[in-house]
Write a structure and sequence with these properties.
The chain is an all-alpha fold and 131 residues long. 75% of the residues lie in helices and 0% in strands.
């Protein structure tokens, strides 16, 4: 099920479709699905304030935040670093509870990070002013 969900997330090209999938399936997401959805959603919204203020995008962000908190203990090094990198790259201001949970989880998994995880996470934290 989770592999299929991830394939769906990756295949969707239009922002409304991504938001709709998050709204309909986020309760079924595992950590990989959550991290992938963050990356795709934030890539599609980019730095556009108009898109960020869209009701569907706001709902999708809220649902992904909830899903993140629900499965944060399952986030591995790659999910932590890729999610933090996507957030920093998009300059999205994320709920502090969600961002804090991601940072704490990244710290807990730091000894398992490979060089790419380290680079992505340090860049993200520095970019967000948290280093």
């Amino acid at each position: 099920v989770h592999k299929h969900i991830n394939q769906l997330i990756i295949q969707l090209d239009k922002l409304p479709d991504i938001c709709a999938l998050i709204q309909s399936r986020s309760a079924d997401f595992n950590a990989v699905n959550v991290a992938t959805a963050w990356r795709i959603l934030l890539t599609k919204t980019g730095r556009s304030h108009a898109l960020r203020n869209d009701a569907a995008v706001k709902t999708a962000v809220e649902l992904l935040g909830q899903a993140t908190l629900c499965c944060i203990s399952d986030f591995g090094p790659r999910q932590c670093s890729n999610t933090l990198h996507a957030i920093a790259k998009s300059s999205y201001i994320l709920d502090e509870q969600v961002l804090g949970a991601l940072v704490v989880r990244a710290e807990a998994k730091a000894l398992e990070f490979n060089s790419q995880n380290i680079a992505n996470t340090l860049w993200a934290l520095a970019t967000m002013g948290r280093a």
